[in-house]
Amino acid sequence: MAAANRDAFWAPSSKVNPDLARERESATFDVRELTHIIDGSPDRTKRRKELENLLYSEPVFRDVGRLSMERDEIYEQGVLKSIKLFEWSRKYKWDDDDFELASRLANHDISMSLQHAMFIPAIERLASDTQKAKWLPRALHYEMIGTYAQTELGHGTNLMELETTATFDPERNEFIMNSPTVTSMKWWPGALGKSSNTAIVLAQLIVKGKNHGLHPFLVPLRSMEDHTPLPGISVGDIGPKMALNCIDNGFLIMKNVRIPRENMFMKNAEVTRDGRFISRGVDKANYATMVLVRVKITRWAFESLSDGATTAVRYSVVRRQSSLKPGERELQVLDYQSQQYKVLPALAASYAFLMTNRSLHRLYDSVHADIMAGNTKLLAELHCQSSALKAYMSEVVVQLLELCRQACGGHGYLASSGIGLLCASSAPLVTVEGENSVLYQQAARYLMKQVAKAVVGDPVASGFQYLLTQSSSDRPDIRIQNLADCGNLDTLLQVYQRMAFSVVTGAARKLQMAIESGVEQHVAWNNNMVSLIQAARFYALHGIAKEAGYFLATPTLTPDQFELVRAAELQAMAKVRHDAVPLVDAFDLHDICLHSALGCYDGNVYERLYALAQTSSLNKTQVHPAYYKHIRGLVKDGQKQLRQQSKL
Ligand SMILES: CCCCCCCCCCCCC/C=C/C(=O)SCCNC(=O)CCNC(=O)[C@H](O)C(C)(C)COP(=O)(O)OP(=O)(O)OC[C@H]1O[C@@H](n2cnc3c(N)ncnc32)[C@H](O)[C@@H]1OP(=O)(O)O
Ligand SMILES: Cc1cc2nc3c(=O)[nH]c(=O)nc-3n(C[C@H](O)[C@H](O)[C@H](O)COP(=O)(O)OP(=O)(O)OC[C@H]3O[C@@H](n4cnc5c(N)ncnc54)[C@H](O)[C@@H]3O)c2cc1C
């Protein structure tokens, strides 16, 4: 498609699909007002619009041609987007919120995303004041393009077993960085393959033959002159992925790479000139960057899910298919209860996740400020909450996005629907920054400690008071006698707290019994891992319906009460269905950001599907070269054989 057509592609049309228009006319609330709440304030809405105008005035951010690009072009486009954002950030002095918002408007589809997602935050959190003064300007002015290189080919979860070494050489006052085995090469870090010239490398610190555990080191990778790899450095791209192919996730092998002693991040520990190791912060303070990214991932979860819900809801009111009664007009598919059951949980969860991210971010900001002031008292609770919510929200996003895709029928399987790419781009959220089953266990570990405190009447962390308030009676005693009760949020909170209390204390009891029976702690833990992970997982009515077992197998709800909840859930869906379009319109996603022929604001789905089909590289010629190379011969042979047969 020519550049001009590409620009026309996303221009909003004055002709709006009538079904979609009618849905908007019947909104029961002020959409703009809700948009302000979603953005955070009217000012943030205004700011978002300004940034949309800035980004979408640049062809590279409108990339309609993206659907048929080769990886090198996708990577280069991602680099160009990165550079644009970096230049604007420097020119307009963006703060973190502006940068994060601009990155979101670009769908995080930027090759050097780690610069602001991890590299700069790691320097801010792990470097001494002297090191920050030296390195932050170089990172903020983009002389240093960096990545966060922790995962290795052989280990991602188990940090204790990472093999990269940093050995102190007192003779030359340097560290010698090495990748001693094939499994020790760094593998996966974003922008490591071709973009970065510097890496924060997590390595086992060896001083005078003693291993002092995992510490971060600043390692130059490529020449600042011509970007060639420095001596001892072997670096490259690890190959195409399911999505996110603008990012050059890379490998790094270091052979006797020497860095100055001052390149060890020294906020939490240091090696003195005479080779003494000094530890300063809490043991896990060096894990601070991972906690921050887990909190960011809960925001990305909201963004991905609101994209998917917008596409699926708008398409489900435009698409008419089949009739409930022969001869009647075909139904908008969103009027099928089964379609509501597929699509509306994603809409409901989007709003729930937006609020959850805000609450978690407030906790993070407060605890981070404490930690920077030397008070790590709430670090463990933050670690628990960020681990559990990152795991749960990413898991739910992946599940609900797939349901949104399925709800769009065959067209949902087209790249031009945008929803397949969304599923594939969001898929790694269950893995990055800590694989979910591992993070659930981190949360479960903290929960078990809270139970142990509750049992002896000691104070428990603020987020776990329900462990003290719920009774351990084995009979349900929650007041749910009619549909109205099911809509009472305090009642629903009590339902969840009662269930959580039962599941968490149940897991603790099983673990305790196993240990008391003589089974070793780590074996007991593994044998009860599913119960422990469940204890670390749980959103309102749909959550109860979906997890029926846990609400019925514990003294939480009677079967009759559960049936009331199910009925209330379907009643709520019918109610939400009425406002489904205004509720997704309130996310106010620009068509370029949503990038979907099915979810576009004007609902002209069929015209856009056809227009995008024209961009298929196969349509460059009426007869594809493959005909002349292969198909013609086959047809001619067939004709020849038929002629011969007819003569027989
Ligand atoms: C609109 C579309 C949007 C789409 C967007 C898509 C973008 C997708 C791409 C994004 C990519 C982002 C970049 C990704 C980066 C990465 O992945 S970086 C690498 C991440 N790696 C990990 O997270 C590793 C996970 N493993 C661990 O964290 C640890 O190994 C462990 C599992 C936690 C185990 O720790 P360990 O020290 O080995 O032992 P434990 O005994 O379990 O822990 C000891 C105590 O320390 C406490 N603790 C552990 N971690 C932390 C922490 N982070 N903070 C604070 N405290 C921590 C733990 O609770 C124990 O405490 P006690 O119980 O008191 O002993
Ligand atoms: C798109 C993407 C971007 C990434 N970016 C970066 C980056 O910038 N920097 C970086 O350092 N890393 C990065 N990573 C790596 C990521 O952090 C790791 O993939 C992640 O930590 C999981 O480690 P692993 O892949 O080695 O899986 P493993 O740790 O080998 O786990 C494999 C599977 O084993 C199971 N498992 C493992 N341990 C346990 C356990 N204790 N209990 C129960 N089950 C377990 C789980 O099912 C897990 O999925 C990225 C990965 C992806 C996919």
From TrEMBL:
SUPFAM superfamilies per record: Acyl-CoA dehydrogenase C-terminal domain-like, Acyl-CoA dehydrogenase NM domain-like
Residue span(s) of domain Acyl-CoA oxidase C-alpha1: 287-448
Subcellular location, record wording: Peroxisome
Domain Acyl-CoA oxidase C-terminal: 536-635
Highest taxon of the lineage: Eukaryota
InterPro entries on file: ACOX_C_alpha1, Acyl-CoA_ox_N, Acyl-CoA_Oxase/DH_mid-dom_sf, Acyl-CoA_oxidase, Acyl-CoA_oxidase_C, AcylCo_DH-like_C, AcylCoA_DH/ox_N_sf, AcylCoA_DH/oxidase_NM_dom_sf
Any one of the GO CC terms: peroxisome
Residues involved in FAD binding: 151, 190
Stated family: Belongs to the acyl-CoA oxidase family.
Stated name of the protein: Acyl-coenzyme A oxidase
Source species: Batillaria attramentaria
